Amino acid sequence: MKTFPKFNLENQDGTEISNEKLKGKTLIYFYPKDNTPGCTTQACDLRDNMSTFNDLNIDVYGVSGDSKQKHKNFIEKHDLNFDLLVDEDFKLSETLGIYKEKKMFGKTFMGIERTSFLIDENSNILNVFEKVKPSDHVEDVKRWIEAND
User: Fold this and answer.
1) What positions constitute the catalytic site (predicted)?
2) Which domains does the chain have, with CATH numbers?
């Protein structure tokens, strides 16, 4: 079983979150940018289904290259009920191989490929959800958990 790399990232309030602070199963989802349509859909769907994750004892963290202030604004604007972590230098995203060349509207740029990792309390990766569709993400995670719990 692969392990999630060691990390130490700040959340929107400047509190450091690391592997050592994770208590149980955790869904760490990586997304391109705060306040964009797909990322908002995904975040709001997670927010609206947080009771399901709480019932399953799964913590949720979002990660992007946005600043603490942008994360704070995103959380306040959409009343998000989970922390967003700052990976401004994309070190964690690069380590995981999800900071990639992307194309949109004929332009090529580097960015985070929407990917989620379900890990256990020992940072073992239980599952990787790749090329996540924002509107299907929660159902995909729930389906996997029901099939593998």
Assistant:
1) 39 (cysteine sulfenic acid (-soh) intermediate)
2) 8-148 (3.40.30.10)
